[in-house]
From TrEMBL:
<protein>
    <recommendedName>
        <fullName>Serine protease</fullName>
    </recommendedName>
</protein>
<dbReference type="InterPro" id="IPR009003">
    <property type="entry name" value="Peptidase_S1_PA"/>
</dbReference>
Length: 296
């Protein structure tokens, strides 16, 4: 019997090799499937569980978003329905008694807020600064008298005020053993930022040649961005315990084109004093329910 040509031999070999490869691949795929089914691939099971968790979380988020949309569409559709309160007191802006006086009292319409889940005033830390970095920035030399603990729900609840004595004589030391008071704020323009409160109050002059005394806040360090920018005015400045230090009023820079390198704030003690002098006798900066007559 004559031998087939060499070309046919080579072609037959390639077909056989392709068949064997496909058969082996199918066997391997079946083996992997069996391993997955019977739990012999822990990594695969973990990956599947992780993806399933993300899918379930996405489904829950969609349900919550749909519920939120329905609430907005039915309860907050018109501009009138989105009015949360009214200004009841707003003194003229001036440099009374040396400090910048730029504040207002807003009475909240309690019918517009669900009192059952109101937990008081708080600052949302967001996700731009990681919990590790924020804890490191707020605790320059741990441990110390006022350690900052990152809240599990990312909300720093406002509790109490920073005493004037502590503003001028901080009890916390930085890595160079220098007294420092680390503070943070969440502003409309710059979001969450961390800074160092200066224990020496500054004097500033505005465009109307008025001189005022200010609580000065410096950036976290020479490499960090500005503590505040235009549009952040009115932000509350607090320490790591959530104690209110003051309200942001402005800032200054070496050149108009540069970022603000010094932020100015009015101490909360002065603001509370002025509110009382304007007839507000029962002040509460830490409301936890609407029965506490919240101050905003």
């Amino acid at each position: 019997m004559p031998h087939p040509p060499h070309s046919e031999k080579r072609e037959g070999s390639r077909v056989l090799e392709a068949f064997l490869r496909s058969y082996t691949g199918a066997q391997r795929a079946e083996g992997v499937q069996n391993h997955r089914e019977y739990g012999h691939y822990p990594a695969a099971n973990e990956a599947r569980e992780r993806v399933q968790y993300e899918v379930d979380a996405a489904k829950r988020a969609i349900e919550e978003l749909n519920a939120f949309y329905q609430n907005v569409a039915t309860q907050w559709a018109t501009p009138e329905s989105r009015v949360l309160g009214h200004v009841v007191l707003s003194p003229p802006i001036n440099a009374g008694e040396g400090y910048t006086e730029d504040w207002a009292i807003i009475e909240i319409d309690t019918s517009k807020v669900d009192a059952s889940n109101f937990e008081g005033n708080a600052i949302d830390l967001g996700t731009r600064i990681s919990s590790y970095n924020l804890t490191r920035m707020m605790n320059p030399k741990p441990p110390h008298d006022h350690p900052f603990e990152y809240p599990f729900d990312r909300l720093v609840r406002l509790e109490g005020t920073i005493p004037d004595e502590e503003m001028r004589h901080p009890t916390v030391l930085d890595k160079n053993n220098e007294p420092c008071l680390m503070v943070l704020k969440r502003g409309n323009t710059t979001g969450l930022t961390v800074g160092r409160a200066n224990n020496v109050f500054s004097y500033a002059r505005n465009d109307y040649a008025e001189t005022s005394k200010e609580w000065a806040i410096l950036p976290f360090d020479s490499k960090s961005h500005a503590f505040s920018k235009t549009g952040d005015s009115g932000s509350v400045i607090v320490d790591g315990l959530g104690r209110i230090g003051g309200l942001l009023t402005g800032g200054s820079s070496a050149k108009p084109s540069e970022d603000i390198n010094i932020t100015y704030a009015t101490p909360i003690s002065f603001l509370l004093k002025r509110m009382q002098e304007n007839g507000l006798r029962e002040l509460n900066v830490n409301p936890v329910s609407f029965d506490d007559q919240p101050l905003v």
